[in-house]
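Standup notes
- DV: blocked on the single-chain target, sequence here:
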Amino acid sequence: MSRERVERMLAGYAAFNRGDLDAGLRGIGDDVRWEVLEVFPEQAPLHGREDVLRFFESWSQAFSEFRAEIEEVIDREDHVIVIMHMAGRAHGSDAEVSTPTFAQIWTFTGEEVTHVRMVPGKEEALAVVGGGP
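- DV (later): unblocked, structure below
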């Protein structure tokens, strides 16, 4: 996997953290399949870039501030695994909230992201893509 892919993904997370969701989703295929963790409000897999955009826009309705905090990035051939958690503040609150750490598995076809799957942790992500640490 190219370092450029990882750098592009990190730039996407930075854009997401700035609130620029369109830029954060650049490079994601129009027909992407996005599977979220069961703890998130949207349970069904998301289909298409517009569904994913709506999912993250719904977060801005609940939170005055939210961001992805990346803990580790792992290259695995056609996959990039991002170990992370979400943090932020609910509207009308100064209290910081944070999700438990989870993993996102980004699957590429060429240079386009075609599938994103969230799993509970690093071990699960490595088991999905095959291979150890």
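- Follow-up: Helices lie at 3-18, 21-24, 49-62, 122-129.
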